[in-house]
Automatic annotation (TrEMBL):
Name of the protein described by the UniProt record: Malonyl-[acyl-carrier protein] O-methyltransferase
Pathway: Cofactor biosynthesis; biotin biosynthesis
Gene that encodes the chain: bioC
CDD domains linked to this entry: AdoMet_MTases
EC annotation from Swiss-Prot or TrEMBL: 2.1.1.197
Lineage: Bacteria, Pseudomonadati, Pseudomonadota, Gammaproteobacteria, Pseudomonadales
UniProt cross-references to Gene3D superfamilies, sorted A to Z: Vaccinia Virus protein VP39
Pfam families, per database record: Methyltransf_11
Biological role: Converts the free carboxyl group of a malonyl-thioester to its methyl ester by transfer of a methyl group from S-adenosyl-L-methionine (SAM). It allows to synthesize pimeloyl-ACP via the fatty acid synthetic pathway.
Keywords attached to this entry: Biotin biosynthesis, Methyltransferase, S-adenosyl-L-methionine, Transferase
Substrates-to-products reaction catalysed: malonyl-[ACP] + S-adenosyl-L-methionine = malonyl-[ACP] methyl ester + S-adenosyl-L-homocysteine
Membrane-spanning intervals of the chain: none
Amino acid sequence: MTDLSTPPLPGHLPDKRQVAASFSRAAATYDSVAELQRAVGNALVARLPHGLQPRTWVDLGSGTGYFSRTLAAAWPGAYGVAVDIAEGMLQHARPLGGAQAYVAGDAEHLPLQAESLDLLFSSLAVQWCSDFAAVLAEGQRCLRPGGVMAFASLCVGTLRELRESWQAVDGMVHVNRFRHFEDYQRLCDGSGLDVLGLEQLPHVLYYPDVRGLTHELKALGAHNLNPGRPGGLTGRARMTGLLQAYEQFRQPRGLPATYQVVYAVLRKPLEGGN
């Protein structure tokens, strides 16, 4: 198992510049196919502690701003900041409103002042960060005592059906890699933040055919970005092999695509104790 308390070996996760460019290109199409993102983000909102009244919140990996607008509606008097690594997403989100500020920034090096936040919210963004310990350290730095960091991410087992189908075809890297859930547990436990909740839950989407899934991943900007991915167009023979291999997973509702979702709610201890 890779030790993610230090940056993983080169080639473990996608280059963040490619991630930013991919999501920038997807800004106009993202919302039309974001069923998973909506469901996961809403589930994360539902996990926020009761009675939370943030004066300042950040939507980290804010994308098109859907959950920035959700947070703004929940706490209309709070000051909201949307942070994303993809400039194209920020440009798309800004005219739609929700946050008071839109900032281009990296979760591992947040352009925010220490102890300036009461809530750091991040849904389906931090899986792209290679140094997750740094993400947690930035959360610990930027939160005020008693502040909450809530994130949803993806772990090993995500898109298992697609990965196994491609393995049957050519054995190359066609599906994005993710951390083990145990890495999230270990890093959260060692973050200096109190773990209020940490769990892994599967979320399954169904498609009439494989092309429906792959087209959706591209529209989201979440298609294969890993080092070692095959270059060029996928040949007809390989695509036919993929379609045949994926059919073994077909269920009455269609072809399943399983996402293993990590939900976490952490809190910065109060000064002098919990």
